[in-house]
Amino acid sequence: MFQPWRLKLREAEEALRSGRLEEAGRLLRTEGLNEFLPGKRLMEKVAVQIAERAERRVAVGQTLDGWRDLETAAQFGANASLVDGLRQRFVQQGLSEVEAYLSAGDPQAAAERLAHVECQHASSRDVRLLKETTARVLAAQTHCHRGEFAEGELDLTAAIALRPDLKVLDELRKACRVKAETSSRLAGKLHGAMTKADWTAALTHAEALQELCPDHPVAAVARRQAWAAVGTNLTDRNANGRGTFAARQNLAIASPRVHGMNQPIDGNPRDSNARDSDTGASQPSGPRFLLWVDGVGGYLVCQGDEIALGQPVPGGNVDVPILADVSRRHAFIRRDAESYLIEPRRDVRVNGKAINTLTLLSDGNLIELGDGMRLRFRLPHPLSRTARLEFVSHHRTQPSTDGVLLMAESCVLGPGSRSHIVCPNWPADVVLFSQGNQLHCRTSGRFQIDGVEVDGRGPIGRSSQVVGEDFSMSLEEV
């Protein structure tokens, strides 16, 4: 007579052959087949294969899955010596991973990994020592983030005493000492800038200090005071722009000293051939690129401190080539400290008044080159030296753009009226900034640079494409 349990046993055997190990074990246990000798032997095979799978998973870094398999193998009746041996190996593997996280400078991940090892009832001396060491490194990191480097060094010294064999701990202590010296210098500069109410310098030093110590209380206070002093914020979408220039004037140098500023250039018109013949003598003073902002417009971005404006003729080598009746190099705009000055080479008027010497530019000035080519000079953001040239007349650059940005350290694109490029439909600001010769982009949340996802910030090239959930722009090197 056919017995039903034999059918269930065959189902369990088929599940085992197909690699469905948990299903095979479940069938054997729920049907009580492991009470019979054939079922008991089959259960032993299931348990062994699950234990072997646990070993393979741990070997390739799937540690959590490996631990779960090991517990399942024990529940299915795997040999106790096999389970204990694997558990010890897994604990050692886990401790090695904790040490690797510490070496990588991620004590938080090390602590989380160690907590999981402890959940496996691992309480050896090695585990306890590494737990205390990790706690000390975490405490040191917290102190260093606050700028408390002396306390951080004490914690690292205690960690070294616990695990002198971990060479990374001594490296962390050395790095702590170097950061302490840098922090002290920055704090001194910050204090001096705040004493002088030089809020632009204060902001620069505060941000540098926060880069080194993200939770530095003095840097945070100084940064808030700097923003309060000029009545604006990079993320303030509702700013209406009132008082922007007055605030900037409080930050700027009142009487910039520029070599030759008070010297007349030449009351008489210069010889056109003499001036325009030196086409090879003047090159664009810095990198330039076109910035195309989807749904907003295109801008020519010049990063040099001296910008030549003129006609786009062959060999003219001007930074801002303008399709208008102007000379090859009609005028120069220079950035000095926090001020901008314009040097005329041909007929130039500022707010309707003809000039023939270096002249200080102020926010809102109307610049006229030649006969009818008009630009508006703007300084939108009080804590950035970047300026914007807006076309008032119908003239445009070649290739045609909607405006020109004279980029200093940063360029703000966003919904606020103080942005260098106003993007009314964007939910948040996007900031382009330079570090050395490298451009970077930062904004809140995740976005893509040339198809690669980044979080918060990342380096860009002058031919990059930057795409976020609610914005898109591309750069094109000139």
Helical run tally: 13
Question: What's the shape?
Answer: elongated
Largest sheet at a glance? 15 strands, mixed
Distance between the termini: 89 Å
Helix content: 40-55%
Q: What is the β-strand count?
A: 20
Instruction: Write down the Rg.
Output: 34 Å
Poorly predicted runs: 230-281
| Content-based structural category | alpha+beta
Average pLDDT number: 81
Could you tell me the strand content as a percent range?
Answer: 15-25%
Per-chain topology:
Elements (H helix, E strand, L loop, with lengths): L3 H14 L3 H10 L6 H23 L3 H13 L4 H24 L3 H13 L5 H21 L3 H14 L4 H29 L3 H14 L4 H14 L13 H8 L20 H5 L11 E6 L3 E6 L3 E5 L9 E2 L9 E6 L2 E6 L3 E3 L2 E3 L3 E3 L4 E4 L3 E6 L8 E5 L11 E4 L3 E5 L6 E2 L7 E6 L2 E12 L2 E9 L4 E3 L4 E6 L1
Parallel strand pairs: 2-13, 3-4, 14-15
Antiparallel strand pairs: 1-2, 1-20, 3-5, 5-6, 6-9, 7-8, 7-10, 10-11, 11-12, 12-13, 14-16, 16-17, 17-18, 17-19, 19-20
Helix pairs in contact: 1-2, 1-3, 2-3, 3-4, 4-5, 5-6, 5-7, 6-7, 7-8, 8-9, 9-10, 10-11
